[in-house]
Structures are given as C-alpha cells and as structure tokens.
Amino acid sequence: MNQAGPLWSSLEIVKLIVQGITPILILLLGLYVNRALKKFEHFQWRNQKVIEKRLQIFDELAPHLNDLLCYFTYVGCWKDLAPLQVIKLKRTLDKQIFLAAPLFSPKFFSACATFMNLCYETYTGWGRDARLRTKSERRQQAVENWETPWNGMFSDSPSDPNQIREAYQEIMKCFSGDIGLVDPSVHLQTGRIPANIR
What we know:
By secondary structure, the chain is mainly alpha-helical. It has a domain at 51-179. The protein is built from 5 helices and 2 strands, in the order αααββαα. It has helices at residues 4-73, 83-100, 106-119, 137-142, 161-179; strands spanning 120-121, 131-132. Strands 1-2 form a two-stranded antiparallel sheet. The longest helix has 70 residues, at 4-73. It is rod-shaped, with a radius of gyration of 31 Å. It starts with a helix and ends in a 19-residue tail after the last helix. The relative contact order is 0.11.
C-alpha cells in the first residue's frame, strides 16, 4: 500500500497540473489568434487605404499621361496642345510622379521615367526648358496659329512614336498591377499611329 499511495499522488498531481495549464494554454492561444486577427485587419485596412490613394493618383496622372501619348503619337487631341503646354505638362507630371513613387512599385517609377525620357530631351542648358522629342513639320502644317518661337522647343533627336506608345502601355500595366485590378500581362491597346508622320 505504501508504494501505490505515492504513485497515485503523483498521477493526481500531474492530472491537476494539466487541468490547471489547459485553461491558461487556451487563453494564450485565444490571445494569439486575436492578435493575429487584429494584425490581419490592420493589414487589410492599410492596403485598402493604399489602393484608394493609388486610384486617386491614377485619376490625376492618367489624363496628363494620355495627353502626352496623344501629342507624341499624333492621335486624339494632339492638335489642341501647344508646345508650351506640353513642356509645362512635364513639370506637373514630374512632381506628381515623384510624389507618388513611394506608393507604387519601383517598376512603375521606372516605366514613368522611361516614358518621360522618350517624350522630353532634358538638360539642354542651364535654366532652359526641356525640349519635345518629336518632329515639328506636320505640327506646323496642322496648327493654324503656329508661333515661330515654338520651333526652338523641339529636339533634334525625336523619339519613335511606337516606342512612346509601348512605354505608355508599360505605365498602364504597372498601374493596373499595383492597383490589383487587371493582370499586368494583359496587352492594352492605344490605337494606331499615323503612317505619314514626318
């Protein structure tokens, strides 16, 4: 009897310890799950706010980027934009893109830089504006009130309109991918470039 007594007491003690630890473990597990759920909810809330901000930035940037696409590929509203407007548009876009960069992927920022470099020749001299990397001949023929000072606003090394269109499509793919609305691999159509550009 002496041997069974201590064995029984040890089992009872272990049983009591397990019964005492179980609620503590359940409590700790509950706290862990609750904390994980709160983190997840915060993560979702933050992502929602970032997407909302990205959509707002898209609403601000997209019309200006589209104006550049039209101007440099001779489609849509290209005749409505004077060269000086297009040069001023660079300053607006540069500011918006640099401010938006932290909210988008590096690929988006890189795509914007490529597009802008195809549209504008920069560093043309101290205090001088960027020049438009497009030809002026057809523009002079199409615009009724062409002003002579505009001739100096064009670069001697124009970009290929097809490259500009491809760079624009890349920006739109990055926008779509960063916002999560469209598969970034989807090819976006931007229209046909006139064949008689000079």
